[in-house]
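Incident log, structure service

09:12 report received: a user says their structure output differs between two submissions of the same chain.
09:20 pulled the input from the user's history:
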Amino acid sequence: MKSNLKLTAIIFMLFFGFSMLAQTNSKRNLDNYRQPDKRGINVFEAPKDSVSTFDGVKVRVGGQSTLQFQAIDHENGVALADQTTTNTLQEIGYNFNLATANLDIDVALAKGLRMHLRTYLSSRHHPEPYVKGGYLQIDNLDFISEGVLSNLMKYTTVKIGHMENNYGDAHFRRSDNAQAIYNPFVGNLIMDAFTTEVGAEVYYQRNGFIGMIGFSNGKLNQNVLEGANGKTGGAAFLAKLGYDKQFTEDFRFRLTGSLYTTGYVASNYLYTADRAGSRYYSVLSPEQYFDWRTQSLQNTTATNTFRTGRFDPSYRNRITAIMFNPFVKYGGLEFFGTLEFANGRAASESDNRSTTQLAGEVIYRFGSTEDFYIGGRYNTVSSEQSFGDADIDRFQLSAGYFLTKNVLAKLEYVNQSYDGYPSDNVFYEGKFNGLMFEAVISF
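09:34 re-ran on a clean worker, output below:
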């Protein structure tokens, strides 16, 4: 652990020093780029707003660092006399969580040609650095020949890489490891749609209308090995259609619908891909778990409980998910909603199951430059499982203060409960509640 922390510190200092040298006499702003600070809040797809004159390769090095203090209690309803080692909860108390850190490298390679790369320097699942993903973004084709398809590219963007899929709008507001400045709350949604796959997406944005189609190989962990069915993987299709308009200085409206669907894939990770982990550490985590590989009980560790507080419907090999996201902002008051409908199955199942997630959040931002905010979110998930219908409900209250555009402090109260789980399950009458304090630096 100590060597990993030292390596993280060395890498961060080297890139920070390089960043200062590379940017001493240049602006940090890039074309068609979502700012990583307060200015990026309520920005969804990268804006199609500029293609400046190219005067050489420009490197922007940034990053994020985030730390939480957790004061949460948890319990389940299994009677003490009937408890087994697989549903006895770990004892948790109040203290700081592991600090998380990101490193971002964005490079203007040519006119209208930009690269993005994000590395998790430290995360809940991996205390050592590893690459989350990256992509090439094309907003202009002048690097091929000046004026090529200029009328089309005025409204078109192409992204290619091993990258975060653009399914739904909720992933633009979620915390991405240490990048938590866009999220007005501490936790993400219960069913957290996020995955990184190799693919390409094509966008067309014009007069407020947004259209996107994309394809990926449907795999989180890339390899060429064939599975038992003789296939190396599968394919996923993505699409988004929406409208986003600033009608007046005070009033903005956005509505999008998104689709993610697969044929057969070896293992789908749409709701389990985030290795950064949940913000609610060790909640409803058993002291031991049954390891199917060794067919024995093992002590629970941080790496095999990093998704605590989240829900995965276990659509391992086939999935179709649809998400609708309305967003309304009037003055300092904003509403963001999520209506998600997913169905699918694992290869061992003959029939599809279905899951519904609903979430609504209301935020009020105030102060001369909206440096303060208060808000609430209600989030529910109902899913068909092998044992019957499972229901999860979460209520969150949050307040935040931007000390500067790069520094955010927020406090959240969370209350989450489980219903429908059988009495031999760790989630039987499970619940957790308490406070989370989070400090975020992003630049």
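09:41 both user submissions now match this output. Likely a transient worker issue. Closing.
09:42 reviewer note: Residues 2-23 form the longest helix (22 residues). The first strand starts at residue 58 and ends at 75.
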